[in-house]
């Protein structure tokens, strides 16, 4: 075996100096069979006992904050590793501004070719975005023009401050549904649309403030509070709810429930069926174009060259449907049409924000919920496209960008905007290179607002419902749910629980279920009170689980036990203690054991997994030691982690002072299982079984 | 080194047969320097890859339930290890009845000597119990005789069904305070004492039902939901609240707040001071005897022979105070006295339970809270005394006993009883041997009820307050709080949070804070996103943390990283990924590193700690692999646990099907860090740093 050329960097206390790695291994192999194993073992045990004092809890928290402060950043060029250099004050300020506005970065490299691509992408985006945003505004119970406003200002701001190059900004289905399910509990949009709109703008303001705050405080990790499985379930549930509500527009029903749970919606549909308030023409128009758009989507996914087809289809449907209604005067036959859409640029809406009044707390609460959902969606979309293109997003900067865009949007009659998956996919396929595509889209919508809103007069509302319905299958990711089922059944429970919660109760409850189940899942895994039995792998000195490695051999009379959980705390300490005692005392009953196997005389507790122990855990170990001694069984503990060893020493001091028996005093800590076995074998006379 | 005589039990797939343990180690040492290391490494890697399929999630849950079913039991004689034998049906029934009534066990060994000890202990108990239970009943806003009733029936039932030999049963301070703070929110005890009493008895019924249910379902581990630290804080807060409320009785104040938070109580005291509604005589009587009882307690703890002094002192105080009031007619000077106490045995109260009406849900909720608190207290007291005497309690049987005693108590005019620490300590010091001491106490109280209640007519209420106040210092365990501070600062936060919650808000909120902080603590430890850097211990093949073992040597160019948390999930996956990338890319900036250290070229991820991974974790590992490859760094993973390895294989299949890159396919799993280093060294040409 030729020696490798890796020098070993000396440890802080090492006097051996640099030496070749495999040579050291050869040395250790020789040591094992030399005459000084006991001295070496004693020295290793001393390493365990003399470990320096671990950092206290406050430094742990400080370290955690440091990680947060340093994280979320593609602060350095990923492909080259030039270390940071010191900057002057002026350079620091310039650097900070450049950090705030990433646009200044890609601006420098901009050229006509990029602009051409972005222009195409932007126009494609706009064609999809105009009908969708009108539809989503209606979903959010706002006037149609608010959807168009929301596609003007937020994308412009994001283009200057955001770090994703593909993310397409505008109103989205899930956020619109959130607003339409939570704000009407405060004010009814049909009876008082002006106050409803004002409250929605105020919610948008709060959403922006929370998002920006999360970004500035670098608390971006909070967005990860919902596991991927929960997001899948929640989004699918939201999609079903939205779809059912679109049936109102598709069928031209006048009176419909405000509630979002599926039982109320189906009941409402059923009663309107009985009262014959469906309109046949709305149904025909809506359904035919729905089929058309779905076919266009299908063709677009099959062939990469037809990427523009699903993007164009909604706009074509709107134009065609408007023409049909105009020519056939279908509105006189009961087909509901949009009618008047306010033209002109975004009106300034600062005065419309409502901070006084009884709703302030509720609005803030809704704003927080919407902020987190919007961020979750945008982060997920942005990350997946960034990883396709091979760069990393700066999570905190994204949040700040989103926050600012929503705050300024609330001043300019926009409601909450975020990144949309379907439009980002279109943007990406259309070949966008920079956020200029968002600018192009915004300008196009602006022109639409200024000059062309009259064209929307005869647009039937059922076509808007079709457009929204056509976007929903993208939100229901059945394949991903199946993947989750295969990988982790408990994860799937989170997914399904969130789905059912949204479907049958309400959005907030579905969200709460998602977060709670995610965390209960973590708790259960963290405190699972199982133990593993370890055995020796042949040909090695390694001890591994006998279940995972059937070749591992157990040692007669010695039970080597490792805890499965990384915490020994109040919630599982007694359980684990009972489990170990059961294992020790019940083994003879198993009947599978051969006749020459001795009863257990030594229990080795391998603490490699254990990261944390509390006072209940220390008490349980002490009781375990006592109980084992009463049974005539020795106990040894191996490889304790830093903080655990330190806490047990402190716990021992406490027990000594209060006159109770110590733990560490009674059994030594060993650095490895092999050392524990060797030392205990030499130390005790072992008796024959009775 | 002489060979030990431990035969090794063959693993299921092992063909080597039995061989001597140290001989095997010698063999492995020879193998390391023989010519076939690569083949051996390949075989070990195969062990990892070919591990059998781990049990699914449902069998994990089944295993968990099995642990619950088997746990909590001192099902077998601790000192001898006779395996269980098959029982006939008759024997099984007899066994079950013996299980229900442990009294049948110790009855057999009963003799006159035991009875003498129990008689002394029982009488000592009764002398302490009579004044305390009257005081606690007043604390619970009930008539004084209800305290005496509660010291008759529950102890009798517990003596037959309980497994602790020292536990003294009766009303306790904390439970009485819980009742007096929660039930008056439904009905005011001053204006409608009859309904208040009926509701309290109904709460007792629910308490008993919940406790018995927890015991039968073997859900005893739920009692451990409050960490030891939380119990310490909660009890101390409750003690302070009780103490402040006793000032009403001590000072003879007429009007006092119903609230329990310290701000309201102090404000109420202050306003009554201004209105001069304190009674001087009550104050003098109460305070003098309070000082007397405290001195008696102090003397009793100093000398073991004077254990009876703190037990007798309250009764002496009651007798003396009653005489003083009787002789001086102090009741005509404004000293409040108990007046009439109903004599006679416990009246049957089945008809007084209130299951109809609007309060049912609230009563059940209060019953659940009281059940858990009562069980927590009794379990803590019972366990500590049992461990002093060297036996183990059967937690589930204890709960069933408590549940039955409270249910039957609710039928016989008793409110919730549980094990009391102060009285159990007295019982223990007085030399009790079996629960017969409880029977003696119950009979004594019964005689008191039948014949001597008239003696209590002139007893001032301030003496009851003194007795309760004197018992409170035992509940405020400052030394234990200091111990907790030394061992674990976060644990102390739980303790302090519970204390403040009870003190400044309410009992339920304090409880909720205690449970929540305990679990948030677990969560934070479970998902802590830290990483450890490992180095090689000289003279061994072991890799340990370089922070804990300063002698450990890092290897130049290789970063060996181990996750601190045992879960890689949505809550920490991105964090950990960033952390590892930071470590790899920032190392050159540290400035402490010697010049001949190569930049990192291999990252070894040691997964020994990792028990669980979810879809977000798998995605993060995949991204990490991609990012490292972009940096030109190799990645290897070592020692994956069973379920984690299986999940990653499944995750890989998913990714392959959706066209994304695999993780396991790209990097191999190694069984140990040494194998990973050897294999990667041989496999790659490593280039010089730029």
Automatic annotation (TrEMBL), chains A, B:
Recorded superkingdom: Eukaryota
Record-given protein name: Uncharacterized protein
Biological source species: Melastoma candidum
Phylogenetic classification of the source organism: Eukaryota, Viridiplantae, Streptophyta, Embryophyta, Tracheophyta
